[in-house]
Amino acid sequence: MKKYFIVLISIVFALNLQAQKIKQVKGDLAFLKGQDEIGVQFTYDKDLKIGPGTEQEYIDKKMAEAEKDEPGKGQKWLDAWKADRTSYYQPKFIELFEDVLRKKEVVLLENSEKTKYTMIVNTTFIEPGFNVGVASKRASADMVVTFVETANPSNVVAEFTILKSPGTAMYDAGSRVGESYAKAAKYFAKYLLDKKAF
Q1: Which of 156, 159, 180, 157 has its CA nearest to residue 168?
Q2: Which of 25, 99, 141, 174 is most buried (CB neighbours < 10 A)?
Q3: What are the domain boundaries of the chain?
């Protein structure tokens, strides 16, 4: 029985890895050679989709549900939803990216003007998932990662898409989606290592 459980966990893990797709859209990676400090900015697409609809539709629905549950709770939900970006998503991305590249001593500096290159992580889609005890759905996220010259941001040197980065199905929405960012960073950093970018 234990052997079957280990095989099942291995299959699930493998499916998670296959679910995430990283694709280089433009540029090459030669510019990263010798770069141990890279700027990073996080942006959220003006047409950001949350689940099957727009972010505003998702916000309206969740706020209405929270208000129905308890007056004033809608605004608390909205504040928490907005705070998740800086509390969970972005720190998780930075932490895992740096962790994978620790031996190369590569660090990310958020909103820095002193680095030669800046990595812009633009989120285009978030599936927040859910966990209601008897049923759950895994979170996921899509991102476009663009490297630009910090002093001349219009000069795009490379661009990548990260699709269906899997989060978890457990805990609160911030933690579930935060895991999507952690996985995106982890496997993107490994991708760069495999391509001998550093």
Answers
A1: 180
A2: 141
A3: 20-194
Six-digit token pair at 105? 């001593």
Overall residue count recorded for the chain in this entry: 198
pLDDT tens readout for residues 15-30 = 444 468 999 999 999 9
Full-prediction pTM beyond 0.90?
A: no
Please choose, from the candidates 65, 72, 19, 45, the residue with its C-alpha nearest in 3D space to the C-alpha of residue 173. 65
CATH of 20-194, one of 3.55.40, 3.40.50, 3.30.160, 1.20.120: 3.30.160
Residue 37 predicted with pLDDT over 60: yes
| Token pair recorded at residue 115 | 């680095």
